[in-house]
Amino acid sequence: MAKAKAKTYTITDIARICGVAVSSVSDYIRKHDLKPTEIGDHNAKLFTYQDFKQIKDYYENKARNQAKTTRTDYKDELIRQLKSENEMLRQQLAIKDKQIAESHKLITQVNQLSSQTNKIASQAQQLDLIKNNHQIASHSTTHDNTNEDKNQPPKHQSFFHRLFNN
Question: What pTM was estimated for this model as a whole?
Fold first, then answer.
């Protein structure tokens, strides 16, 4: 009775079925020291169903683990980024709070200076009024003296002055 020939797979067949590159399957075979059961046409290395199943299981598990790891890594990375952004926003908020406090201080100083300026302006107006009153009083005194001078008889003037000025 003849033995039934078991199905064998080439590296290319295994790569195509698993959905990976031929070089990836070759690397796996080399790392796990798998030996081909036969050499086929054009020196193609043929592997048994058990080897094929082992390689297929490896790539299926790897894909599942990567998907889980990728999601977990993505979530972790997102959380890390959000924490970083949150910290940056906190620092910016602290800076803005300091700027607001400094602005309030400056506004208070401006208000104080404005109040002092108004007081000084008021005092200056009062001084001007006093000065104007004093000038008016001295002017009226001078004016009275001038009127008195007009009432006095004219002083003695020379002949030529009287001749040419009249």
Answer: 0.40
